[in-house]
Amino acid sequence: MNLKNKLLHLKDTIILKAKEKAYASGFGSTEDYEPKFNSYELSDFVDNLINWYSETMIKGHFTEIGEFHFPEDLRNFIEKMAVWYELRYPDYEINRLMPGSNQEGLYVSDIMFKNNKYINDLLEEEADTKYLDWDEFYNARSFIRALPHTERYFLAKPKFPNLVYIKTGSYPHFHLHPNGTIYEAEGIETLLGYQIYDKELVGKHITELPNLLEEFGYNLSSNSELFKVIKNYKNRVYLKEELLNCVMYRLIDRGGNRIGPRRAFLFAKEFNRSIDIPLIYGIDYSDPGLNSFITTYLEAGGKEDLVCLVGYGSRSRKNEPLSIIKLKEIYKPVTKETEKDSKLTELHQRLVNVLANSIDPEELRQETVKQLRIERKLQKNNLNKKASE
């Protein structure tokens, strides 16, 4: 399989993951919303959603003061949510939870509570701050509640309106539960010449109505209120699902080749995203904790035959040709021996990091210059010796 076909296969995998998440409610086709992916770049996927949002949910949707939302509002919110998750799980906390490198021996809960002078001054002396957990304290519910109304809208659970008319200005209508189930219908039996009675529609889902009406000889126009309500709901579902996917993409890009995929993996588990994506973009052969990361993924229900990009986080430019590989080709099943080797590798990496952090960069530079001078002097002496011979 050549590189082009490999990338096309990977693109199809990502599109499939997007489709699987697009309509968790199980109704409606996603064909109209299929992203147009021409690359593997995660930033392009974000741009694709922004463009879709602009064309589908902004243009032509006016209030009394004009178009209310702007494309950059969505982009800024995606970035804000990614930053929130980074603050909730700093790099050192990610390395503690999912070892990779740069083990600093720090605990975010200690920093935010136990070693926080304000907290210690505020609480009584006998208060035990060790039971305070930053992860639980700075949780998703708190984050969402702290958002302004215009941003909470992005994460609000889509709901159908309580009252929907078949056609604006006409009498036949339905009363709906928030999930779209009909609990009362009025005027439909008259509209359809008593081929079906209003009470027979109770319990049906609003999305069943267009086909049902057509069966009884009533064709809805594409501009009917019923069609608009259904389409708007589907758009809201898609927007929320893809927004959360885009936050995951930004976590991968913002966090670098090791931290990014691990943080995105935690996000995927918490917000019910595909755990495949962080692995597809998280293969870094220099990562001492890579096998451990793969093990965590597989234990969470992942697949050994998952096709992944190699070196996405260390590429030098957008859409740089990258090789791909299946996880089972690089994964070493955890045994007592491999677990021991993994711990030794991680310990070695930690020692290297400690030594690197303890060295003065200026002293290191001076030593490097001295070494180069000595090497040049030795080379010159060797040349002189050969010339004299």
Textual characterization of the structure:
The protein is mainly alpha-helical and 389 residues long. It folds into three domains: 3-156 and 233-275, no CATH class; 168-219, no CATH class; 341-388. 55% of the residues lie in helices and 6% in strands. It has 16 helices and seven strands. The protein has helices at 3-22, 42-58, 71-88, 91-97, 108-114, 117-122, 134-137, 140-145, 149-155, 188-191, 209-215, 225-270, 276-280, 290-299, 336-358, 361-388, and strands at residues 62-63, 66-67, 163-165, 173-176, 182-186, 307-309, 324-326. The protein has a three-stranded antiparallel β-sheet with strand order 3-4-5. The protein has a two-stranded antiparallel ribbon with strand order 1-2. Strands 6-7 form a two-stranded antiparallel ribbon. A hairpin with a 7-residue loop joins β3 and β4. α2 (42-58) packs across α3, α2 packs antiparallel against α12 and α3 (71-88) runs parallel beside α12 (225-270). It is elongated. The model is unreliable at 19-37 (pLDDT under 50).
